[in-house]
Write a structure and sequence with these properties.
By secondary structure, the chain is of the alpha/beta class. The protein contains 20 helices and 15 strands. Helix 6 packs across helix 8. The two termini are about 35 Å apart.
RNA sequence: GCGCUUGUAGCUCAACGGAUAGAGCGCAGCCCUGCGAAGGCUGAGGUUGUGGGUUCGAUUCCCGCCAAGCGCGCCA
C-alpha cells in the first residue's frame, strides 16, 4: 500500500467539509503529504491546512482542527496531531506495520508490480552513432535509461527500450573513410586520417580484423566499392561492440531501430509530405527547409541538404519520432539525451506539435556531460579523437554495480567530474558495497537459522517493538511510494538513496538486536526477527534489481 | 552576445515551497572470546555563490550580478 497516496485521499475527503464552510469552488488546493525530517513531527505530515488557509483569511489552526475532526482515520494511522504553524502530523500504527510485514512476505501486496493499465511507453537511450566504441560519458545515459525502464515497468507501463542507430548520414561516411585509411595503411600505404575523422583505437582493431578475414581484397577494387563493403562490415562490428559493452553494464534493449530503415520504408518521405501539406516546407538555396519560425523557433532549419539531397539529422529525427507516436502508437516517449543536444529539443517538439502530437507525450531527460578529471586538468571525452576511457575498461576496473550505483545516485542535471583514480582506489568504500554487504549479512543470518529447530507455527510479529525494528518496518512500508514518486518524477536517483537508508537501518539493527537464539526463551523473538530480515532482504534485492544490480548472498 | 543547465560540509552528491539543511567518502576518538568489523557509536565540519523580491515559511519560486558546463551548422 502506498501510504502517502492513501493519506492524501483521506485528506481530500475531509477537505470537502471545510469546503462547505469556507471555500469557493474555484479555489485551487495544492498540498503535500511528506515524511518530516524530525521524528517528533510524525511519520507523515501534511501542509494542507496552511495551504487552504492561504488567502482565506482563516487561521490555519482552525482549518486543521476541522480537517482532523472530519478525517476518517485509516487503519494504518494510530494518531493524528496538530502542530504549529499549521501542520497535521500522522503517526503510523505499530500493529499495522507488523501486519504489513506479512503482506511483504506473502507478496500479496504486488509490492512493485501494479496491474497493467495498458499504457505504452518508450524509453530511448544511448543511441550513440555506430562510429566508435562506448566510453564513460555514455554510461550515464545507459544506466539512467535502463533503470528508468525497469522502474516504469513496476508501475504497470508496457515499456519499450530502444536504441536508435544513426546508420545514415555523413558521420557514418567519415567513419568509413577513417576505417578505409586504417585498412589501407596496413598494406604499406601512408594515408592521413581525414579531417575530423575518427581516431579511435577500435578502428585499427577492426581494420586488422578485416585484413585477417579478407586479406588485400578491398585494396584491389575501387575506393568507392571498397567503402561500401567497409561501411557494412565496420558498422556491424562497432554495433556488436556496443551491444556487448551494454550487456556488460546490465543494459538490454527490446528493439534496435535503424535510421536507414526510415528512408527505405518511405516513412521519411511521407513525413516530409505531411509537413508540406501543412505549408511548413519551402525551398531556398537549393535546400529544403522547415519553416520553424512559423512554429515559434527563432530560425528555420534545413531538412534536405543542397548537396545531393541527403536528409539532415533533424529531418530523419522528425520522421523517427513520427514513427514512434503515429506508427507504433506509444502513449509517451522518453528520450534520454546528453546535454549537448538540448538545442535540438525545441525544434523537434515544435515539429511534432505540427504533426498533431500533443506536447506532453514527448519527454526529454537531459543528462549533463561527464567530464574526466585527471591530476592536472579536465579532459573532455571525445569519441572522434579517441580521448576517453572506454566503457569496457571502466567496467573491468570499477565493476558493473559500482559503476551503475555511482551514476544512478546523481541527478541527471548534475555535472559529474569523473575521477577514475578515486573510483578505482575507493571502490571498497563505495556505498554500493555497503548496501550489498547489508544484503549478504542478512542472508548469512537466514542461512544460519536453518540449523535451528524453530516451531512451524507462524511468528508473532507483535514482538517486533524495538526502535530499530520499528524503523526498519517503517522504511519497508515506504517502498511503494518511493517507486511511485520516482516514477512520476522520472527520478531514478531516489532508488540508491533508498537502498542506502534501508541498509543503514539493517546494520544498526544487526548491532542492537540479536536474531539467532541463544537460549530457549529467545526462539519466538528470533522467529519474528527472521521474518523482519527476510522481508527486508526481499525489498532490498527488489530495489537493487530495478537498479540493474546484483544482490549478492556472499561477498 | 543570446539561450539551456548547474552552484549546498574538505571531496562526491541528496533534500516533492515546510518545521532544527542530510548522506557517503575523508578527518579525530571509542567498540569484536557473540548472527560477516566491507560493520556500529561519538565528534569536528554549512552565512545553501552573491544582492534583492514574493510568502506565514525559500536550498527550492521571480529578478540582477558572479562563476562553471553545454548549445546557438545544409554535424549528429
Amino acid at each position: 500500500m502506498d501510504i502517502s497516496f492513501a493519506l492524501k485521499k483521506h485528506l481530500y475527503k475531509a477537505l470537502s467539509s471545510v469546503k462547505q464552510e469556507y471555500l469557493k469552488k474555484s479555489y485551487k488546493i495544492d498540498f503535500v503529504v511528506e515524511k518530516p525530517q524530525i521524528k517528533e513531527h510524525g511519520d507523515y505530515s501534511s501542509n494542507i491546512a496552511l495551504q487552504v488557509s492561504r488567502g482565506l483569511n482563516k487561521n490555519p489552526e482552525e482549518i486543521a482542527k476541522i480537517i482532523i475532526k472530519n478525517l476518517e482515520l485509516p487503519d494504518f494511522i494510530k494518531n493524528v496531531s496538530f502542530k504549529k504553524p499549521g501542520f497535521i502530523n500522522f503517526f503510523l500504527s505499530d500493529q499495522w506495520l507488523q501486519e504489513n510485514l506479512k503482506s511483504i512476505l506473502n507478496k500479496e501486496n504486488n509490492y512493485s508490480k501494479k496491474e497493467n493499465f495498458n499504457k505504452k511507453i518508450q524509453v530511448e537511450f544511448v543511441s550513440v552513432n555506430p562510429t566508435g566504441n562506448l566510453h564513460i560519458g555514455h554510461a550515464r545515459g545507459a544506466v539512467i535509461g535502463s533503470t528508468l525502464s525497469n522502474l516504469l515497468e513496476t508501475q504497470g507501463f508496457q515499456v519499450n527500450r530502444e536504441y536508435y542507430i544513426n546508420d545514415a548520414g555523413n558521420q557514418i561516411d567519415l567513419f568509413t573513410e577513417s576505417l578505409y585509411v586504417r585498412y589501407m595503411n596496413l598494406f604499406n600505404n601512408n594515408l592521413p586520417i581525414p579531417e575530423n575523422g575518427y581516431e579511435g583505437k577500435e578502428l585499427e582493431e577492426i581494420a586488422e580484423q578485416i585484413k585477417s578475414e579478407n586479406y588485400e581484397k578491398f585494396t584491389k577494387i575501387s575506393k568507392k566499392e571498397a567503402l561500401i563493403h567497409l561501411k557494412k562490415i565496420g558498422i556491424k562490428q562497432i554495433l556488436n561492440n556496443i551491444k556487448n559493452d551494454l550487456i556488460e553494464l546490465g543494459v538490454e534493449y527490446n528493439s534496435w531501430f535503424s535510421e536507414k530503415s526510415l528512408i527505405k520504408s518511405g516513412e521519411f518521405k511521407e513525413t516530409i509530405n505531411i509537413l508540406k501539406k501543412k505549408n511548413l516546407v519551402f525551398e531556398k538555396d537549393g535546400a529544403t527547409w522547415l519553416d520553424s519560425k512559423k512554429l515559434g523557433d527563432d530560425k528555420n532549419n534545413v531538412l534536405i541538404k543542397s548537396d545531393g539531397g541527403a536528409p539532415t539529422y533533424f529531418a530523419t529525427d522528425i520522421a523517427y519520432h513520427k514513427n514512434k507516436f503515429l506508427t507504433r502508437n506509444f502513449d509517451t516517449v522518453i528520450d534520454i539525451w546528453g546535454a549537448d543536444h538540448h538545442g535540438h529539443i525545441k525544434r523537434l517538439s515544435d515539429a511534432l506539435k505540427a504533426l498533431g502530437i500533443e506536447k506532453n507525450r514527448f519527454v526529454v531527460i537531459l543528462n549533463q556531460i561527464v567530464s574526466l578529471k585527471t591530476k592536472s586538468s579536465m579532459t573532455k571525452f571525445s569519441k572522434r579523437k579517441g580521448t576517453s576511457i572506454p566503457l569496457k575498461e571502466l567496467i573491468e576496473e570499477v565493476g558493473k554495480d559500482a559503476c551503475r550505483y555511482n551514476f544512478l545516485s546523481k541527478s541527471p542535471e548534475s555535472q559529474i567530474e569523473f575521477d577514475l583514480d578515486i573510483s578505482k582506489k575507493k571502490s571498497n568504500e563505495n556505498p554500493v558495497f555497503y548496501v550489498q554487504y547489508a544484503h549478504a549479512r542478512m542472508n548469512s543470518i537466514i542461512e544460519k537459522s536453518k540449523n535451528f529447530n524453530f516451531s512451524k507455527s507462524t511468528s508473532n510479529l507483535k514482538l517486533l517493538t524495538h526502535d530499530s525494528e520499528i524503523e526498519i518496518m517503517k522504511k519497508l512500508s515506504e517502498f511503494p511510494e518511493i517507486l511511485r514518486f520516482s516514477s512520476e518524477k522520472l527520478e531514478v536517483h531516489r532508488l540508491p538513496q533508498y537502498t542506502l537508508e534501508l541498509s543503514q537501518l539493517l546494520q544498526k539493527f544487526y548491532e542492537e538486536c540479536r536474531v539467532l537464539p541463544e537460549k530457549q526463551e529467545d526462539y519466538e523473538t528470533s522467529k519474528s526477527r527472521l521474518d523482519l530480515i527476510k522481508a527486508s532482504k526481499l525489498i532490498l534485492s527488489e530495489t537493487l534489481s530495478i537498479m540493474g544490480m546484483e544482490s549478492p548472498n556472499k561477498m
